[in-house]
Amino acid sequence: MSDILIVDDERDIRELISEILQDEGFTTRLACNSDEAMAAVNAEPPALMILDIWLKDSRMDGIDILMTVKRSNPDIPVVIISGHGNVEIAVAAIKRGAYDFIEKPFNIDQLMVVITRAMEASRLRRENSELRNRDTTNAEMVGQSNSFKVLKSQLDKVTRSNGRVMLTGPAGCGKEVAARYIHSLSNRASAPFLSVSAAAIAPERMEEVLFGRETADRGIEAGIFEQAHGGVVYLDEVADMPAGTQSKILRVLVDQQFTRVGGVDKVRVDLRVVSSTTRDLKAEINAGRFRQELFDRLNVVPIVVPGLAERRDDIPVLAAHFVDFFHKTQGLPHRNLSPEAEAQLQAMNWPGNVRQLRNVVERALILGEGGDLIEPRDIQGDAVVSDGDGQMVVSAALTTLPLREARELFEREYLLAQINRFGGNISRTASFVGMERSALHRKLKTLGVNSGALSVARDPDTAQNE
Ligand SMILES: Nc1ncnc2c1ncn2[C@@H]1O[C@H](COP(=O)(O)OP(=O)(O)OP(=O)(O)O)[C@@H](O)[C@H]1O
Predict the structure, then answer these.
(1) Residue 458 pLDDT > 60
(2) Does one domain contain both 203 and 289?
(3) Pocket lined around ligand 1, Cβ cut-off 6 Å
(4) Which of 138, 141, 177 to mutate to test the pocket of ligand 1 (most atoms within 8 A of CB)?
(5) Which of 164, 183, 403, 441 maximizes the CB count within 10 A of its CB?
């Protein structure tokens, strides 16, 4: 049942409001001055607070109480009661974070409309932030390869502790999933998990986003650190953090407290920090772009999340997991992978790691040709990916064939490409590929290539040689 705190110095009004609310099914607590009000909030934050602006025999007036409460409990909706003709003060209260105001004298209907709306707005805000942070599908970590088991056992060891963890690994390999896994198994699981992407936030907004802000007209707006109180903050790609923010975060980690932008009061929070990077932070430190002291603080437990290429055994289970996922969440058809398609996925290059695999599966389900199984043709578009490191990349068609057939297919494609390159001139092609002319002719014949029918422009030299 929702509990409402009523703060008014006039006993009649307190009790009248209390009776009305109890009739509507709320429980109530009453306070006649700031000391009683603060004691009640500190004992147990109420679901809503009704606050008179003018309080006799009180250390703080309503506005001061409002500001103090909003500092420690920004989520409590506060409805102000103002005297007739005091609209400016009421408006000032709203700017400082009050939800709405009612003017004395008010009737029951007015009171109930405002309270119902305030409760509803606060419920929606809570639900939204819970939805944002409790994306359980993202906490699910799938895998069975040896390197995945090593990763999982390292994560399992750190979940119970409070130690700061630095996750290192290439883009899309599952660092955030690993961070959510730590959170979901820790004793902070019921508190928020909030993710901050240094790359996605403009440097000039970073401090506001992290620490929140206080302004005369809008009052207090809590930042990520404050919203995550009791839980886990995930700092994604710390190497992208502007230098100024690095120093400020370092100070928060040392002092365990911070000041909101534009504010003076210290805010104390209890947080666990998990961070991640795709870059070599030692090199960033040497280049003067990342602070050594911050690295030392964040890197208490370093954990490497391997790229997908290092755990190809996981590809079939991950792909099946994504098929399930898209089926359940987006109603895409549930199609299993054919053994050939699995083989192809396992042979592909994965510069974008698990995220790329997820995209490939999604595309196959959306654009695939139907039928019960996902076939290599459904994933062909991504089969040949250059990794930029000069590593050999095997073409999609080859990965599904036995060696002899794959070799023939390769030879055929290779020789046709060379013949085209040399304008159909078999002598020059033979010389380039390192074969006798007659041997090349024989080869083309066994491969079923009719060299006379090659669709290339023939130069006079060719005609002469043929
Ligand atoms: N082991 C896993 N099991 C299931 N899904 C995974 C796994 N690893 C990664 N994913 C999925 O792959 C996608 C990318 O993962 P995530 O965002 O955690 O990667 P990241 O390393 O944090 O990426 P970036 O460095 O780009 O921020 C997400 O959709 C995530 O759900």
Answers:
(1) no
(2) yes
(3) 138, 140-143, 169, 171-177, 236, 278, 318, 321, 354-355, 358
(4) 177
(5) 183
CB of 76 closer than 8 Å to CB of 69? yes
Which CATH number is 71's domain given? 3.40.50.2300
pLDDT of the residue at 152: 95
Atom 16 of ligand 1 has which residue's CA nearest to it?
A: 174
Q: Structural domain tally of the chain? A: 4
Here the CATH number for the domain that contains residue 417 is 1.10.10.60
Residue 175 has pLDDT above 80, yes or no: yes
Residue 209 has pLDDT above 60, yes or no: yes
Whichever domain contains 294, its CATH number is 3.40.50.300
Residues 286 and 169 in one domain: yes
333 and 259 inside one domain: no
Using DSSP, state whether 459 is helix, strand or coil: coil
Domain boundary among 129, 160, 178: 129
What is the pLDDT at residue 466?
A: 38
Sort strands 257-259 and 266-268 into parallel, antiparallel or unpaired. antiparallel
H/E stretch holding 425 reads: none
Q: Are residues 124 and 188 in the same domain?
A: no
C-alpha 47/C-alpha 127 separation (Å) is 14
Ligand 1 pocket test target in 136, 151, 173 with most atoms within 8 Å of CB: 173
Angle in degrees, 0-180, between the axes of helices 437-446 and 403-421, rounded to the nearest 10: 130
Q: Which atom of ligand 1 is nearest to the CA of 236?
A: 27
How confident is the model over 403-449, as pLDDT tens digits? 887 788 778 877 887 787 777 788 888 998 999 999 998 888 888 77
Instruction: Inform me whether the pLDDT recorded for 113 exceeds 80.
Output: yes
| Domain that residue 454 falls in | 403-465
Cα separation, 39 vs 61, in Å, equals: 15
Ligand 1 centroid–CA 176 distance in Å is 6
